[in-house]
Amino acid sequence: MAEQKSILNDMNDRSREVFRRVVEGYLDSGEPVGSRTLTRLMSEKVSAATIRNVMQDLEYMGLLDSPHVSAGRIPTQRGLRMFVDGLLEVSDLDANERQKIDATVGNGGDPSTLLDRIGSALSLATQGASLVLAPKHEAPIKHIEFVALGHDRALVVLVFGDGHVENRIFTPPPGQTPSSMREAANFLNALLEGKTLSEVKSVVAREIEARRQQIDGLARALVESGAAIWEGEGGLHDRLIVRGRSNLIGADEADLDRIRELFDDLERKRDIAEFLELTEDGEGVRIFIGSENKLFSLSGSSLVVSPYMNADRKIIGAVGVIGPTRLNYGRIVPIVDYTAQLVGRMLSDRR
């Protein structure tokens, strides 16, 4: 970012204006912006030849690209990044858009239903695909039970002290019997009542080590496997809500193959859930463009994302919008920011 600010500072006013108008024109239309178009937009009267020279300099700097020999310029990913960090003007959220989001979200329903409506409202407001990373449930555990569903599938039922119930499917170690599952559940219920899921793994590991001789080998393997699933991939897979995929598919028919590839990644959920958790590094809206992340490197998409917080100002989840790199960032950023704040307030009020 420091290098980008230095480049902007080193530009003269004409170069900076040409760069800004090329990016804004591309974000608005998705088409290359030519020198003749810019002659009508510039704040000073400048010839098309002069503008072409400026654009050539910007292209040499890696900020613009020419998809065809004489078809004008579009911003590179580096150029978009510099524009977003240094020149983007973010508008205030329109009152009508705020009212539409509020009306779509409503006030009733449990947190899961609320977050589903949040995803739909965000997708509708932005005409993009929305992503919602739901918070982990951190209430103390009241009861745990394992249920065999087949030779390679088992269900763990978690009953929390606040009445919340979660059912999670995982692959148990081989050779489990109804007896070993009861033994594992009894062991955990005696040990973990009153503790949250985030406290489970370390407590289980310590107790298994201390009481290894007392615990049947199969039950021990089941406990270890189950605890790992609760804290690891099961939690990530269950906490992602994706809405509005059709908006992305209709955005650009020429990019359908790349968009389908992106959706294949979204179906796996692991990468995007881990990626969204990067928002926990700090507050506020963050913008990730194209190949800045492995998930979007081939699809040419961008993500605008913001974390949301509980009443204790702890980041517990995130909301975001995914779309083409030529998103209207100035409009999308305040929508995502407002929605994140709205989610935080509504979840805090339900405590």
UniProtKB/TrEMBL annotation:
Keywords: Repressor, Stress response, Transcription, Transcription regulation
Molecular functions (GO terms): DNA binding
Domain Heat-inducible transcription repressor HrcA C-terminal: 113-333
Keyword Phosphoprotein: no
Gene3D superfamilies linked: 3.30.450.40, Heat-inducible transcription repressor hrca homolog, domain 3 (3.30.390.60), Winged helix-like DNA-binding domain superfamily/Winged helix DNA-binding domain (1.10.10.10)
Record bears the keyword rRNA processing: no
One of the protein's GO biological processes: negative regulation of DNA-templated transcription
InterPro entries from the UniProt entry: GAF-like_dom_sf (IPR029016), HrcA (IPR002571), HrcA_C (IPR021153), WH-like_DNA-bd_sf (IPR036388), WH_DNA-bd_sf (IPR036390), WHTH_transcript_rep_HrcA_IDD (IPR023120)
Similarity field: Belongs to the HrcA family.
HAMAP family membership: HrcA
Matching PANTHER family: HEAT-INDUCIBLE TRANSCRIPTION REPRESSOR HRCA (PTHR34824)
Function field: Negative regulator of class I heat shock genes (grpE-dnaK-dnaJ and groELS operons). Prevents heat-shock induction of these operons.
Protein name in UniProt: Heat-inducible transcription repressor HrcA
Native organism: Pseudooceanicola albus
Lineage: Bacteria, Pseudomonadati, Pseudomonadota, Alphaproteobacteria, Rhodobacterales
Gene: hrcA
